[in-house]
Amino acid sequence: MRLKNKIALITGSSRGIGKSIALQYAAEGAQVIVSATTLESAEKTVNEIKQSGGEAFATVVDITNRDNILAMYEKIFNQYDHIDIVVNNAGISMTKSTIELTEDDWDRTLDINLKGTFFSCQVAAKKMFTQEKGCIINISSIWGSAAAPERAAYCASKWGVEGLSKVLAIEWASKGIRVNCIAPGYTYTDQIKDLIERGIIKEKIFKKRIPLKRFASVKDIGNVAIFLASEEASYINGEIIRVDGGFNAFGYIVE
Fold it and tell me: Could you tell me the CATH number of the domain that includes residue 29?
């Protein structure tokens, strides 16, 4: 029970990595705030947590809208008098020929992945300043430090998340707030399965580049999120933890 009685918000936690983090946090004793784009999807995760004996609370947010983010946190702070952990997981993928990227493609990707992460960090930090402690974990990607064709908007957004996280880590450390990033590799989520089915990701080829020869499970990512939020990581700040099976260490793509 490494997170016993901690109040933890996970954005984008109705499915995939975010949902797994929510379930794993609850199993470690945290009171989990599940945030999603619809109340129905958030409540499904909340119900799973409660059925397992955990505590959870559902919220709704349009992460691209600052006022909406403020409203979400206002609802949270009406329910809880503090917040210990924020995991900014909400995000989308964007794979499209760079020459064909539209303004809407670019804006949507940056608004969700980077703008939403920033304003969630900012609002959470204002509360954490009064507590003089807190933990923020932002979810990046293997493409947060590498480049790939047809991922201009996505790479830009995730490189931004990693740079932002480092700035916040050094700026807010004096207030007792730790900010770190998790950069997952290819992980079996519905999003990845869809890309495999559409032929955008060729699973056999990418597994050749991964030294561990497998994609991550959502629990692999959640395990790191538990560690970073726990007292065991109390001296870890401003780090990017790559959970990719050695993908970025490999250095080249095997065709």
Answer: 3.40.50.720
